[in-house]
Amino acid sequence: MPKIYDIIIIGAGPAGLTAAIYGVRANRKVLVIGGKNPGGQLMLTTDVEDFPGFPNSIQGPDLIKNMTEQARRLGAEFFNDNVASVNTNKPPFEITTETKKKFSGKTIIIAVGSAYKWLNIPSEYKFKGHGISTCAVCDGYFFKNKDVVVVGGGDTAMREALFLSNLCKTVTVVHRRDTLRAQAVLQERAKARKNIKWLWNSDVQEFLGNKNLESVKIKNIKTNKETILKTAGAFIAIGHEPATGFLKQHIKLDAKGYVAVKNQTETSVPGIFVAGDVRDFKYQQAITAAGFGCMAAMDADAYLQGFREISNKSKKQK
Ligand code: NAP
To answer: Which atom, in ligand 1's list, is nearest to the CA of 116?
Structure first.
């Protein structure tokens, strides 16, 4: 019989770790299953300037390390493996990981975040790891003093471009419109960098090269003119999609694949709650994820209290 936890949290980003802190402080037995690479997107971020409490900013991995240590010190247990399946029939819910470890939880909080979106053009797959990446912090160094492109016009694209501009000879931002979606401060910083160039109203048509990426075919969608731009690397930064593949059969998802919620954190299965980017199409910030983590843990605790009251009542009636 697997050990039964009060709350099992799937995901160890700011949502999952905040839920763990609130869960153990409510005196619940808490397990965090953090995935093979725990920590979520903050692990791939450099300076975090917008998480309150750090006047001189904090590095993303350090913020995760601090949150993890805080949750562990308070009593949360951790296991790092990807979850393969969740039995949602009735509590306690059984979770099986990819290495076949089994855990049971009276409640579950899903905080698995979201994954990078890809352009989904066939040649993109050929060059993944051979010039195409979604993480400048991880792979940027391979392109030191070279020319690279960044695709996208949001906050992530600006952050990637800024990071790469410190390493690479030039960074060309390829964006499908002529205005950026990114927050003003990031736009201003990127536009002030001399080695960041801009290709507006432009779509990537194809990635070209032999073993490694050598150039990108780009089409101006206003003029239909196609150009070939030589590049050693391409960083795709076109947003994220929820990592809900393993939940599809079990929990109601919305049309975009995010977990459908009622009352902020409740899923279609009573006793299973949700927090962070996996339920939030709109805000997707570390601080909002942390806030939802707190709410999900409080709701799981309230559910467990109700559970206890209901089972006490039925015991008394017997
Ligand atoms: P995003 O805001 O959704 O931006 C995605 C960008 O990629 C948009 O410019 C979009 O173009 C473009 N795009 C989407 N699909 C495309 C496609 N198929 N082909 C070409 N271009 C495509 O995503 P994000 O930048 O990853 O940010 C996600 C969330 O995380 C946001 O809420 C953001 O504020 C937050 N974030 C915050 C920070 C921070 O420092 N605070 C850092 C990173 C992310 P259109 O503009 O034309 O739609």
So the answer is: 26
From residue 260, give the alpha-carbon distance in Å to each of 15, 25, 179, 251, 304.
Answer: 17, 27, 31, 8, 21
Shortest-distance atom of ligand 1 to CA 186: 40
Render pLDDT for 95-151 as a digit per residue (tens, 0 to 9). 999 999 999 999 999 999 998 899 999 999 999 999 999 999 989 999 999 999 999
Active site members: 135, 138-139
- Ligand 1: which residues within 6 Å by Cβ? 50, 119, 151-157, 159, 176-177, 181, 238-240, 284
Q: For the chain, which residues make up each domain, given as ranges? A: 4-115+240-317, 125-236
Q: Prior bond to 2 cis, omega within 30?
A: no
- In this structure, the residue with its CA closest to atom 46 of ligand 1 is 181
- Output the CA 275–ligand 1 centroid distance in Å: 20
Q: What are phi and psi of 29, to 5 degrees?
A: -80, 115
**C-alpha span between 84 and 100 (Å, rounded):** 8
C-beta atoms surrounding 89 within 10 Å: 9
Q: Which atom of ligand 1 is nearest to the CA of 177?
A: 47
Backbone φ and ψ of 101, nearest 5°: -75, 140
Contacts (Cβ under 8 Å, ≥6 apart) of 239: 117, 152, 154, 156
The mean per-residue pLDDT over the stretch 54-73 comes to: 97
d(CA 29, CA 75): 8
Please give the distance, rounded to the nearest whole angstrom, from the Cα atom of residue 180 to the centre of ligand 1: 9
pLDDT tens, residue by residue, 265-302? 999 999 999 999 999 888 989 999 999 999 999 999 99
CATH number for 4-115+240-317: choose from 3.40.50.10420, 3.10.300.10, 3.50.50.60, 3.40.190.10.
Answer: 3.50.50.60
pLDDT bucket at 311, cuts 50 / 70 / 90? very low
DSSP, collapsed to helix, strand or coil, labels residue 21 as helix
State pTM to two decimals: 0.85
Read off the tokens for 206: 């194809």
